[in-house]
Amino acid sequence: MTTSDFRPISGVDLPRFAGIATFMRLPHITLDDARLGAVDIGLIGVPWDGGTTNRPGPRHAPRQLRDLSTMVRHQNGATRIRPFDLANCADLGDVGPNPADIEDSMNRITAFYDAVKAASILPLTAGGDHLSSLPILRSLGRDKPLGMIHFDSHTDLFHSYFGGFKYTHGTPFRRAVEEGLLDPKRVCMIGIRGPAYDFEDRDFADAVGIRVIPIEEFHARGVEDVMAEARAIAGTGDTYVSYDIDFIDPAFAPGTGTPEIGGPNSFQALQVVRELRSLNIVGADLVEVSPPFDTSGATAFLGVTVMFELLCVLAEVRSLRGKTSGSQQQATLPAMAK
After folding, report:
1. CATH code at 186?
2. Is residue 109 part of a domain?
3. CB atoms inside a 10 Å sphere around CB 322
4. Are 243 and 273 in contact (CB under 8 A)?
5. How many domains does the chain have?
6. What is the Cα–Cα distance from 231 to 235, expressed in whole angstroms?
7. Which of 140, 129, 141 is nearest to 105 (CA)?
8. Are the C-beta atoms of residues 100 and 51 closer than 8 Å to each other?
């Protein structure tokens, strides 16, 4: 199996509106496909919003994101990274959720990512609401707690909703810390803002050592300074990246369930991902795109552009560290080029 077998279909060979929609026009390879062992980075859909507490819709995101991802080309115009030259990438399909059962859905997601992890594939996920991140972390962080850089307007660190229910899109990272999947002292949350019920989440962050950078500080310091601190917090260990589309101001990304005014613009949304280079990233997700709230597809297009930036970073990590990534490899990634 050669790298050429994993190249996206070019828009000069087949019109972008034609063909079966896959992420970035990559080959679709299932977990039982003989070619799975040749895949370096797997793009995965989690069409599930069982943790949503108000405006549903992210269950429809992977399908819309695939459609809009036909606009992705082969080279990053800013960083000049050509991810499909650096790594074999494939669309691994969707995790099939159980929309009637949250626990069963989470078990299914974890089992899917266990298979991806066993094949030494770096996962790039399109959710799904933010609760989707918890069962992914139950797989990737099972052996050793991960660091995390989290872009969001909410911390998702609340204890429970509705009289003690512990699994919503506002609780995944509280659970992940409690379950030992995340090392809180290596977690940085960026862009937090908006009115709040109380400061329970922020108090928890302070108690366990999570660094929260509110949007006011983000705007005052600028992208490069904030991201330099985030990289220092994550350090050299295995790190997960979770990107909620509501990190971005709703003027640019209205298609989400819990928008908050005052966020970054679409250019800053890409800049923060480019500043992740040099980190040892073992997986990433883009969550909370909700197509019913932006039928134009503009939010999804911004979302897949963020995913392409994440893919470029993952491809660079994989190319420098080889098929066995993460803490098993000791090669040092180069400092990010300015």
Report:
1. 3.40.800.10
2. yes
3. 12
4. yes
5. 1
6. 6
7. 129
8. no
Q: Quick one: pLDDT at residue 246?
A: 98
What average pLDDT does the chain have? 92
Please report where in the chains the tokens 């078990």 appear, as a residue.
Answer: 107
DSSP symbol at 220:
H
pLDDT in tens, 16-29: 787 888 988 999 99
Write the single-letter amino acid at 225.
D
**Rounded distance between C-alpha atoms, residue 117 and residue 158, angstroms:** 28
Tokens 């990272």, residue? 173
41: amino acid identity, one letter: I
- The 10s digit of each residue's pLDDT in 135-160 is 999 999 999 999 999 999 999 999 98
Q: How buried is residue 234: exposed, middle or buried, by Cβ count under 10 Å (0-12/13-18/19+)?
A: buried
Q: How far apart are CA 22 and CA 43, in angstroms?
A: 9
- In a domain, residue 335? The reply is no
* Structural contact between residues 84 and 73, judged by C-beta atoms closer than 8 angstroms: no
Single out the residue of 284, 313, 38 nearest to residue 140, CA to CA: 284
Residue 336 within a domain: no
For residue 338, being part of any structural domain is answered with: no
Write out pLDDT tens, residues 284-308: 999 999 999 999 999 999 999 999 9
89 in Cβ contact with 312 (< 8 Å): no
Spans of the chain, pLDDT less than 50: 1-2, 325-332, 334, 336-338
> What is the span of the domain harbouring residue 238?
3-328
